Amino acid sequence: MDKSKIWENDCLNRKEEGQFLIHYLRERYKQNKENLFVLNLNAEWGFGKTYFLENLALELKEEQHPVVYFDAWKNDYTKDPLLVFISEVDNSLKEYFKEDSETYKLFKKASISMAPKILPHSNPNKN
């Protein structure tokens, strides 16, 4: 996608907030790569949260940042949303992992170990 068209239909003028947030995240990461945190976006229904996050994700991808975009509303069809979330993380980030890397192996191991908790009928140790 052409980066100049990402915010093209931005009726609420959120492009500036998106770019501020990208700058904030970059600076925070530069200061301490090990300091993890949660960022919450909160607004009433209809205030453009989905639009904002979709476009923010597109802009970050255009800038070659790894992005996992997970829309909980679109994935509200399953009894086990964690499984769908893990699958989205895997699909979104697999191009950044070498399959033989320690990070990828740890992610796969964690995913498999969670499967019995998510899907009680599955047992990865069963032959």
Describe the fold and architecture.
The chain is mainly alpha-helical. The protein folds into 2 domains: 1-67, no CATH class; 75-127, no CATH class. Helix content is 48%, strand content 0%. It has 4 helices and no strands. The chain has helices at 15-31, 49-62, 81-93, 102-118. Helix 1 crosses helix 2 and helix 3 (81-93) packs antiparallel against helix 4 (102-118). The radius of gyration is 18 Å and the shape is globular. It starts with 14 loop residues before the first helix and ends in a 9-residue tail after the last helix. Mean pLDDT is 82; it is low at 119-127.
Taken as a percent bin, the fraction of beta residues is under 5%
Mean pLDDT: 82
Specify the helix fraction band: 40-55%
Bulk shape? globular
Order of helices and strands: HHHH
Radius of gyration: 18 Å
Poorly predicted runs of 5 or more residues = 119-127
Instruction: Report the sheet with the most strands, covering strand number, pairing sense and barrel closure.
Output: none
Total helices: the number is 4
- Distance N terminus to C terminus? 45 Å
